[in-house]
Amino acid sequence: MVILYPKxxxxxxxxxxxxxxxxxxxxxxxxxxxxxxxxxxxNQVYSQKTITKGYExxxxxxxxxxxxxxxxxxxxxxxxxxxxxxxxxxxVEVEIAVRKHEHVNQVDPAVCSEIIEHxxxxxxxxxxxxxxxxxxxxxxxxxxxxxxxxxxxxxxQKRSRRFTEWAFTALGQVLHFLxxxxxxxxxxxxxxxxxxxxxxxxxxxxxxxxxxPHIRSALSMKxxxxxxxxxxxxxxxxxxxxxxxKSLKEKIFTAEVDLEIARRHLAKGLEERDLxxxxxxxxx
Length: 284
Known about the structure:
By secondary structure, this protein is α+β, with helices and mostly antiparallel strands. It is 40% helix and 23% strand. A 4-stranded antiparallel sheet has the order 4-3-6-7, with no helix packed on it. It has a 3-stranded antiparallel sheet with strand order 1-2-5. A two-stranded antiparallel ribbon has the order 8-9. A hairpin with a 5-residue loop joins strand 8 (125-127) and strand 9 (133-135).
């Protein structure tokens, strides 16, 4: 799992980036694994400016994460023209090579690529039930669901503070998305964003059966929006055809009036002159 601190960790002016072993509960007792890995912050505009840094670390239950607290200055990272953030999204790629050791419980190697949402660097964070610093906007939402679903708290009691901070931040992101979006907002991009948030949240092993129906409903809004847009387009086309029909009817009515006038003039002209009369030449 890749962990990104958009405001820095142990550093106020640099982006912090770490590789974390993931859900420690699935590992065997006294597990340990040595890994060489690369963390790459992808430049989505200028590929040659992608930043890649290599590390090696002995991952274990007591030291499950490793990385860099000053990966890139925040000024450069947050600069809209730098190319690291596009559409509020940055991309981090990880390449891992695992070295096996004898007499040590092993974890399978992996190569992964993860897209991490960029959280605004000026967002205020506060402590949430001693589980870590969470964005202030998420706190009322987390309080509400945790009171209704105590298992959300219970399942994180034995986790490290860093892990629970990530976990409740991920939950807060999903809740905030659902709270702040309207049906009309659920276009393809919004659905993709929600799907990515949901998949990230599921890695923290919360019991989320209560939330899953709401996620499915929100994701299904894409087809509803598409059908609503099709209906809107059909209504607009119908309105255009009605206007064109009205215009044609007016032209037909005008043409019919002109035709009737022409017929009357023609009939009057025929009545005023005897077509069978002689032409005459001035002699009685």
